[in-house]
Amino acid sequence: xxxxxxxxxxxxxxxxPFRMILPKGSHLSPKLLDLLNTFEETLAxxxxxxxxxxxxxxxxxxxxxxxxxxxxxxxxxIKILITALEFPVCDWDDKWIDVYLDNSVKLLDIxxxxxxxxxxxxxxxxxxxxLLHNLGSASSKQFVRARSSLDGWRQHIGSxxxxxDNCFSVMDALxxxxxxxxxxxxxxxxxxxxxxxxxxxxxxxxxxxxxxAFSGSAKKLMNLPVPETSLWSEAFADLQTFVNTExxxxxxxGVVTVxxxxxxxxxxxKKLYTLVQDGVDPVESGVLQKSTSxxxxxxxxxxxxxxLLAKExxxxxxxxxxxxxxxxxxxxxxxxxxxQVRTDLNVEGQAVR
Length: 353
Description:
11 helices; BPS1_pln; transmembrane; protein BPS1, chloroplastic-like; membrane; transmembrane helix; mainly alpha; elongated
């Protein structure tokens, strides 16, 4: 539930969207119901798996990578569902297509913003490498260079990413599209729209977490209430409450960044800054060596974690892009989207785990 102080982050003011898709008296065939239940049960399982075993795991880069893997997985799941529905694109409502194409562009923009922020953080590794190299010598000249590298790193990490700032308005716009259209005379359309609703909610939730982690503010977190009529709603609510609460708790303690690996590097940098500020006497040389070694270890973990996360963000970008291309291709030729989706799934098989 949203906290009283940030009601503007809560969306879905229109009530239960599933009433517009599956109103009372609406019946699905056993086959369609089985397809929908399978999709929702799979989504619930993915959400339960993503919940960290410990609060300390929230926003480790490895966990964020798992969150991005989840997005790749559920977007692949929706393609599998489309294939199983045998739902030709010519039967799609024009409004569904317009919303899908618009949303896909928004997701691509968000991915680009996240990738740019990861690249910016990775660039900071260069300052750390120079710092560690200069600390290999005990000369006063090297300490001057080390201080310069420390200042460079702190300024770089504290700088703003305008592309990241712009993506928050994109996420807000994406949230406003969660309202679902009334669907008449199309049982397959009802199943598809209900499944797409789940994909959109979970995608927005993960993007919200990434935005909060990269921006340095819990204000970017979204609280997304979902109807209890879906098989994944309980798992989603449990995960959202656990993760959002932990992130807010961290920020309430005055932490500058909630990225655990980045926080470890920042702690190491502060220790070294104090040691090299006025030089190091022989008594403290052992402390300097230990602090340098610790920073080297934490900086490598940060660099490796960012590299792996960047690959997952790129994988998600490709999943969204190929899905969009498949729809556009079938709109041009008037074919069955299921055929193209089946091909795309084969191509993406190694990217989605």
